[in-house]
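Wait, can you check?
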Amino acid sequence: MHSIFSHSALALAALLAASPALAAPCSDTGSNYEAWKPVMAQEAAAAGVGRRGIDALMATGYSSRTIAADRNQKSFRYSLDKFMQVRGAATIVQQGRARKAKNAQFYASLEQRYGVPAGVLLAIHGMETGFGGFMGDTNVVSAIATLAYDCRRSEFFTPHLLAALVLVDRGSITPASVGAKHGEIGHTQFLPGNALAYGVDGNGDGVVDLMNLTDAMASTANFLARKGWRPGLGYQEGEPNFAVIREWNAATVYQQAIAIMARQIDG
């Protein structure tokens, strides 16, 4: 297992720091999206994005479905009990235990390398995509470009857009790659910037492919380890590693649910 993206992430960060302040005008409607694309393309090129990435950006369309999803994240406002019920926590725990038992050596090897217990990885995998059952139906580059164009969180998503275009340049995703409504990729739904920075080649084939289960699980463990996971310490709310679960998702009920399900999976 090794990272082939860490140098790319550092290079992208350096290019972003060196380039002028991002100036492509955001908008709360899709009416100016086509005029925005060439302005954003100039900024992407200045940040070091290559021809394939620029072409992918120019081929995007405004994703109304992404905007609708971004405006309507109701489940994060539920109580913890309601959230866990709606998200199928009991099923995730049951399937997580079965998956851990079936692939015990694999998860043990990840914990040995990264320090992250199987239950945490399996809870995230179950919560994000139902263990790979549904990894999204939205064009990745269009979704991220739409969110970078939209004024609500343009500053947050613009670096992820540049990262997605770098991933296209590298051949890690294509202009046609499909993911979640916010452009997340693969089994555990990495945003492109995180895929670039924390993706690892778990199966040793020389490619980081987050649609591949081994790469996705290794990358998830690597993300948590790099965010400060302390092997052997607790991860429930109030314990040292709960702060690292917060790095995965900003919603409190999500963080609490992952910790509870992970403990139940790990037994």
About this structure: Confidence is low (pLDDT under 50) at residues 1-7. The first strand starts at residue 138 and ends at 139. DSSP finds 14 helices and two strands in the chain. The domain at 6-70+136-195 is CATH 1.10.8.350 (Helicase, Ruva Protein; domain 3).
